[in-house]
Amino acid sequence: MVEDCKKGDIGYRLLYGIVYLHALLPFWVLYILSDLLYLLAYHVVRYRRKLVRKNLANAFPEKTGKERREIERKFYRHLCDYFVETIKTLRMSEAEMRKRMKFENPEMVNRLVKESGSCLVSLGHYANWEWVTSIGLHLTEGISTGLIYKQLKSDAFDWLFLKVRSRFKSLPIEKRRTYRTIIRARDEKFSVVVGFLLDQRPPRRVTEYWTRFLNQDTLIETGMERIAKSLALPVVYLDIKKVKRGRYVSRFFVITPDASVEPKYAVTERYARKLESTILNEPAYYLWSHDRWKYPKE
């Protein structure tokens, strides 16, 4: 996919060059830039501050204004860290990535793949989800990995993120090609582990599954569940914890070993409860600047 980019496109070449030069910087310099970016984004530009405050107020009505402001400031600091960490991905070695993004129990996924051929991983926009693409470094040799993504409107940024997400033995899979990709893996008899970011806001015209999530009626896409049920695949949830700057620890939890035997929406509901628990444990690391609840339940 990345190789198909229009390398001659001036916008892409300029963007890639700037990002690549920043990726050469050591982490300690990038975190200084992150601190400066925080001051700019939070205090000067006030990037989506009204939306973040609305989301936090709706999610945590029991907290005081002071408590929510503390979460808010911590969120913006983390968001800026996430930004520079994503840039750094372009020049990180496998050894460096293994040190900074740990997976505590990859043997669980290896076992499920051995039993079922493939496995689906559910997660949210929490901590550093871009570094989850390094999961292939921890799985049994021969298992392919991919992360579902929605094509960005800007070709230059879309190509850049494809480059970043394919750095560590991972294949970015455009959302519309998900089912065909997994079917091809089954037909050609190779194993694949596919990650789904399920907390995207579905289009307004789409009716999916409504549940209570973070104190609000929330619409959740059920595409992953439908695929898992139709192909009798296991589904796991990836819980991510930020230990400190640039250090994350992840752990897998089984949602179901076989989605085909589960009641309708059971897999999606269990995912929602797992992600909610992750967020409530440390709310500052969730993507509060996303307009997740734009469309109310009718």
User: Beta-sheet strand percentage?
Assistant: 15-25%
Oligomeric state of the chains present here: single chain
Q: N-to-C SSE series? A: HHHHHEHEEHEHEEEHEEH
Number of helices: 10
Number of domains: 1
Spatial strand order of the main sheet:
1-9-8-2-5-3-4
Overall pLDDT score: 91
State the end-to-end distance. Answer: 39 Å
Low-confidence stretches: 1-5
Number of strands: 9
- The helix/strand class is alpha/beta
Biggest sheet layout: 7 strands, mixed
Shape field = globular
Q: How large, in whole angstroms, is the Cα Rg?
A: 19 Å
What share of residues is helical? Answer: 40-55%
Features of this protein?
44% helix; alpha/beta; 9 strands; 298 residues; disordered N terminus; two-stranded antiparallel ribbon; 7-stranded mixed beta sheet
